[in-house]
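INFO batch 0412 | record 1 of 1 | parsing
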Amino acid sequence: MNLFDRFILTLYSLALVVISLFVMAAGLNLISSDYITDTINEIYSSSEVGLAYFAAAAIFLLISLKFLFTSVRGEGRVRTPASVHNPTEYGDVQITLDTIESIAMNAARHIRGIRDLKAHVRAEENRTSIHVKVAVDGETPIPGLVEQVQQTIKERVETIAGLGISKVTVLVSEVAQPGSGARVRRVE
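INFO prediction complete | emitting tokens
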């Protein structure tokens, strides 16, 4: 919640406190009925006073609607990033999917023949899989390179994060032609 919303919420709460105290006092007959009747008559008889009450009520209504829609849409909640739950003997550990992606990418970056890569982690019930999209140099045999990428990522993530990886899927999206330096970004 930003500073402006906090300020409005504070004013809104104070207004509700004043209105609640007034209604409670009227309910206990601490405020005379003549005062309440005179105030209501003044609202009906004077257009300026009626307009002021209308404006205050309209502002109060708008603030109420704003807070209602904010609560329904869920704004202001802290969103927990997607993560994998890993119980240990000492307690629970949650590792974000972004962290696992980072570990996977760092592992594959150091493999000779990889030019560019992207990783995406998918966590389902008791299964974590990693999908990697790579561009290769065109000089290293693809089957051996893909197998090395899969093995390296699986071992590195399991070692560092302590998670079991069910599979590592590799998509070779581009093969750079030997000697052509165009569109090739070396990742090392």
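INFO post-check: The CA atoms of residues 5 and 67 lie 9 Å apart.
INFO record closed
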